[in-house]
């Protein structure tokens, strides 16, 4: 008989999660099994539970910011990290790809763009078995996508890095954030606050927080660890001249927000010649229309970025450990998942909720 795991299961877009059993993928010798201690709540979890992007494959167990203890390691795991039973490990938003040498994405170390990419939840493995996420007691999946967690990072702080953190880190790394570059982060929330932290940790000349209001300005401006590392703040809903005042001042903009009314043309005015605008927020509705002159007058680039590769995750974890990057998290017992999801949806997280298995939770 197949073994079973237990977790918080979504059965439909409008019903609360219920605790119950589910059957994971069959164990293969390329797999690692993990006893879960923590799992971050990501905006993707909410979109998936309510079938916001597309109809979910119910029953579904979400959660792809997983931290736990390795308990079983297959004999065929390509274990470059030398993960052993008892080690603390993490899993992000991807749990499989084809890894074929003739796959351009996998061969280039960009597994997150593999055409056969398997998400950590609401996805299917090649054999047809479901991928189940981290709102559960255990996780099982390919060892290629399991990462050793540096000892300098607590489990609650490390969890949000595995999806939200790498989602902002990967484009910052790709487009050269660091000395000589001025970086803007649009949206100071779960993703955006980590964008500020990593832009600062990478040594950018200036880090600018961009939000509709100045309500989070006091959190954003100032040195780590008590503040988020921003040097300046632009409140687009409070200064009608913001785009003109700050025109041609930024090299890179990472946009974590979405919405058909977001001032995209204004954001592009902030870019210098050959600047890059990267969309990482994933809306359920279309992005606003874009005028051609917003692109051609300065040769700016508008692009997107999806999570990050295993190499991105390894580099991000090492940088976070070295530079003291610590997401701002609030922990909750796993059994309070429905309440935490509701408060996340209402924007009450400052700035990330992390679920804990078997421990009394509080604010870090």
From TrEMBL:
Key words of the record: Metal-binding, NADP, Oxidoreductase, Phosphoprotein, Zinc
Swiss-Prot/TrEMBL GO biological process terms: alcohol metabolic process
Superkingdom assignment: Eukaryota
Any one GO molecular-function label of the UniProt entry: zinc ion binding
InterPro entries, A to Z: ADH-like_C, ADH-like_N, ADH_Zn_CS, CAD-like, ER, GroES-like_sf, NAD(P)-bd_dom_sf
Pfam family, any one: ADH_N
Catalyzed reactions per annotation: a primary alcohol + NADP(+) = an aldehyde + NADPH + H(+)
EC number: 1.1.1.2
Cofactor(s) the record lists: Zn(2+)
Assembly information from the UniProt record: Homodimer.
PANTHER family attached to this UniProt entry: ALDEHYDE REDUCTASE
Protein name as it appears in the record: alcohol dehydrogenase (NADP(+))
Organism of this sequence: Emericella nidulans (strain FGSC A4 / ATCC 38163 / CBS 112.46 / NRRL 194 / M139)
């Amino acid at each position: 008989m197949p073994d079973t795991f237990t977790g918080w299961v979504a059965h439909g877009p409008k019903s609360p999660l219920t605790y119950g059993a589910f059957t994971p993928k069959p164990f293969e010798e390329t797999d690692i099994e993990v006893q879960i201690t923590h799992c971050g709540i990501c905006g993707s979890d909410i979109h998936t539970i309510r079938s916001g992007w597309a109809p979910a494959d119910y029953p579904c167990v979400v959660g792809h910011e997983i931290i736990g203890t390795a308990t079983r390691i297959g004999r065929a795991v390509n274990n470059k990290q030398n993960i052993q039973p008892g080690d603390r490990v993490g899993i992000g938003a991807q749990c499989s790809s084809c890894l074929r040498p003739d796959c351009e994405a996998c061969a280039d170390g960009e597994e997150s763009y593999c055409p056969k990419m398997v998400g950590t939840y609401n996805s299917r493995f090649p054999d047809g078995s479901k991928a189940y996420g981290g709102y559960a007691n255990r996780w099982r999946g390919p060892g290629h996508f399991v990462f050793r967690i540096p000892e300098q990072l607590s489990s609650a702080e490390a969890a949000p890095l595995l999806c939200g953190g790498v989602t902002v880190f990967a484009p910052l790394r790709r487009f050269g954030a660091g000395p000589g570059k001025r970086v803007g982060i649009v949206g100071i929330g779960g993703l955006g606050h980590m964008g500020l932290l990593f832009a600062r940790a990478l040594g950018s000349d200036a880090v600018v927080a961009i939000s509709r209001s100045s309500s989070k300005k006091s959190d954003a401006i100032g040195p780590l660890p008590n503040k988020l590392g921003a040097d300046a703040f632009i409140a687009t809903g409070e200064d009608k001249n913001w785009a003109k005042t700050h025109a041609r001042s930024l090299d890179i903009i990472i946009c974590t927000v979405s919405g058909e009314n977001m001032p995209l043309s204004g954001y592009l005015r902030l870019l210098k010649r050959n600047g890059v605008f990267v969309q990482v927020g994933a809306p359920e509705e279309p992005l606003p229309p874009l005028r051609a002159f917003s692109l051609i007058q300065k040769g700016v680039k508008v692009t997107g970025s999806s999570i990050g590769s295993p190499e991105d995750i390894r580099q991000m974890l090492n940088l976070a450990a070295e530079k003291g990057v610590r997401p701002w998290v609030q922990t909750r017992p796993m059994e309070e998942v429905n309440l935490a999801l509701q408060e996340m949806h209402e924007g009450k997280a400052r700035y990330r909720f992390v679920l804990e298995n078997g421990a009394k939770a509080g604010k870090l």
